[in-house]
């Protein structure tokens, strides 16, 4: 208990936030992380395992955990749940066929008690592809309104390819987490 | 005790000459009080002697062991009787009987604890061992005869086939005997458009051709095709391939990613930034890919370099950043084979079995 409170204090001082990026494979998680960090996105292999990026965002330090989404490794997501302040669920808005899969995995992860306090940002990615569903349509399909009322969540359409909508989403996420964790500022 | 008596007598002596209470009646009362006090003290003394005698009885290791063995046997017998009880009458009494056994075990434990100060360490240990054995067998009998519904979180039955959801709800209810709020499990079919994205679906034995002129930001779907030949000429953004059997698929550069699921006996000629292959069997893939292609739950898939030709493909490849051969076609990651040695699920297609350059 003592150690935990010390860790919390240190975290508070450095204004760190731990953000977990999850979603089905091929949804664009790694591309989003690299895009907001201003890195080259032209060669990205499907993630085998996970990547961690530390990004300074406004006055906060974001530790972004980007975890691979292939079916085989989804069972390892749970290893990253601890101490998560923000959860980013990425959806491939053009992959209509697997939206049921996507919905099931999302609702599974939201049952997780360790994530119950985390703010949830849903990124309806690949909006630049013609034929992609809009953020509103995705919200409807994923049945987001049926979510626990205590959850702080937002859905934003975005494109990791053009960068559109990413900042809007992360701005909301960071503000929402900050309002919870750093109330006294 | 004797000391105390001596002191009392002394006090009496010191009191009596100087005390203002010389008067006989007062002195008599005092004496009476004193006598009763003496009596009480001697009673106390007597009872202490008795108690220490009884302690002495138990402080003998041998007699402790006898007593212990006796109680243990009776507890074991009682447990045995309970576990064999089959007639309904004794079953009714089972609960109280088992409670009595549990109390007896607790008493026995107390006895060991009280005697532990004089028992040799070995006896203490062995007695505690036999007590824990008794407790265990009591638990076993308890569990067998009085199964208790333990409180537990249960994973909800998730059935991905929504047609079967009702059935699984019924099963869950009958299995657990607990009513499950059906609206929790029931997943209503989402109402979203499925078929208006461009693509070829549900065809058999056809040649299907699509040219992408100008429109480069669209996605395309191939699904449920059987024995077809597909030619997709030009650039586009994303390709979804689902449930193909014995098909030949030739595709121009895809700027985004390609997702292949459930294919068998097919030939694919693909160029893309990312390629993911799930549930593929006995298929050959000729790839140009900027990142490492991956397979998952697949076997018998073979890989070779991209060899496609159509008018203007050079420009299309260049515009899509796919003009140079990266050699990644053979850097396949098998998510079902996370080891250093080569995965048995895929191989490089031998030169002599590769098809020549295809012109579509």
TrEMBL record, chain A:
This is ADP-ribosylation factor-like protein 2. It comes from Stephania yunnanensis. Mg(2+) binds at residues 30, 47. Pfam families: Arf. Belongs to the small GTPase superfamily. Arf family. GTP binds at residues 23-30, 69, 125-128. Keywords: GTP-binding, Lipoprotein, Magnesium, Metal-binding, Myristate, Nucleotide-binding. Gene3D superfamilies: P-loop containing nucleotide triphosphate hydrolases. GO terms for molecular function: GTP binding; GTPase activity; metal ion binding. The keyword Lipoprotein applies. The keyword Nucleotide-binding applies.
TrEMBL record, chain B:
Residues 179-337 form the C-CAP/cofactor C-like domain. It is found in: Cytoplasm. GO terms for molecular function: tubulin binding. InterPro entries: C-CAP_CF_C-like (IPR017901), CAP/MinC_C (IPR016098), CARP_motif (IPR006599), TBCC (IPR027684), TBCC_N (IPR031925), TBCC_N_sf (IPR038397), Tubulin-bd_cofactor_C_dom (IPR012945). GO terms for cellular component: cytoplasm. Pfam families: TBCC (PF07986), TBCC_N (PF16752). GO terms for biological process: post-chaperonin tubulin folding pathway; tubulin complex assembly. Keywords: Acetylation, Chaperone, Cytoplasm. The keyword Acetylation applies. The keyword DNA-binding does not apply. Its main location: cytoplasm. Belongs to the TBCC family. Supercomplex made of cofactors A to E. Cofactors A and D function by capturing and stabilizing tubulin in a quasi-native conformation. Cofactor E binds to the cofactor D-tubulin complex; interaction with cofactor C then causes the release of tubulin polypeptides that are committed to the native state. This is C-CAP/cofactor C-like domain-containing protein.
């Amino acid at each position: 208990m003592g150690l935990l409170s010390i860790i919390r204090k240190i975290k508070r001082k450095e204004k760190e936030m731990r953000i977990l990026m999850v979603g089905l494979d091929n949804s664009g998680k790694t591309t989003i992380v690299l895009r907001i960090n201003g890195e080259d996105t032209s060669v990205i292999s499907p993630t085998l395992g996970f990547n961690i990026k530390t990004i300074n965002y406004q006055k906060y330090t974001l530790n972004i955990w980007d975890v691979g989404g292939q079916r085989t490794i989804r069972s390892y997501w749970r290893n990253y749940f601890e101490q998560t302040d923000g959860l980013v669920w990425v959806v491939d808005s053009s992959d209509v066929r697997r939206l049921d899969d996507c919905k099931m995995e999302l609702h599974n992860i939201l049952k997780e008690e360790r994530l119950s306090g985390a703010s949830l940002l849903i990124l309806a990615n690949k909006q630049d592809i013609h034929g992609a569903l809009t953020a509103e349509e995705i919200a409807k399909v994923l049945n987001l309104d049926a979510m626990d009322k205590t959850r702080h969540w937002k859905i934003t359409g975005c494109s990791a390819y053009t960068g559109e909508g990413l900042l809007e989403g992360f701005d909301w996420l960071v503000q929402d987490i900050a309002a919870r964790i750093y109330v006294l500022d | 005790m004797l000391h105390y008596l001596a002191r009392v007598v002394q006090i009496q002596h010191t009191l009596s000459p100087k005390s203002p209470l010389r008067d006989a009646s007062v002195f008599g009362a005092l004496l009476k009080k004193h006598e009763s006090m003496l009596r009480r003290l001697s009673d106390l003394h007597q009872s202490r002697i008795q108690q220490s005698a009884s302690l002495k009885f138990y402080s003998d290791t041998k007699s402790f062991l006898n007593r212990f063995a006796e109680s243990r046997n009776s507890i074991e017998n009682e447990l045995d009787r309970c576990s064999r009880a089959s007639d309904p009458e004794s079953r009714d009494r089972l609960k109280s009987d088992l409670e009595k056994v549990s109390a007896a075990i607790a008493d026995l434990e107390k006895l060991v604890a009280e005697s532990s100060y004089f028992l040799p360490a070995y006896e203490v240990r062995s007695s505690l061992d036999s007590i824990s054995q008794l407790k265990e067998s009591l638990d076993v009998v308890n569990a067998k005869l009085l199964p208790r519904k333990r409180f537990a979180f249960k994973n909800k039955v998730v059935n991905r086939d929504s047609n079967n959801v009702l059935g699984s709800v019924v099963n869950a209810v009958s299995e657990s005997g607990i009513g499950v709020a059906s609206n929790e499990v029931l997943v209503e079919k989402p109402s979203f458009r499925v078929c208006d994205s461009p693509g070829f679906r549900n065809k058999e034995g056809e040649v299907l051709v699509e040219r992408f002129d100008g429109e480069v930001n669209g996605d395309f779907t191939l699904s449920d095709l059987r024995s077809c030949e597909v030619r997709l000429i030009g650039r586009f953004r994303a390709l979804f391939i689902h449930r193909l059997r014995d098909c030949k698929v030739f595709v121009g550069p895809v700027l985004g990613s390609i997702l292949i699921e459930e294919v068998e006996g097919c030939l694919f000629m693909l160029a893309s930034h990312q390629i993911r292959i799930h549930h593929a069997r006995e298929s050959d893939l000729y790839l140009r890919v900027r990142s490492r292609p991956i397979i998952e739950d697949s076997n018998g898939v073979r890989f070779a370099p991209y060899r496609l030709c159509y008018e203007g493909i050079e420009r299309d490849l260049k515009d899509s950043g796919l003009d140079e051969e990266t050699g990644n076609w053979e850097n396949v990651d098998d998510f079902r084979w996370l080891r250093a040695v080569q995965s048995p699920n895929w191989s490089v297609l031998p030169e002599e079995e590769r098809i020549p350059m295809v012109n579509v």
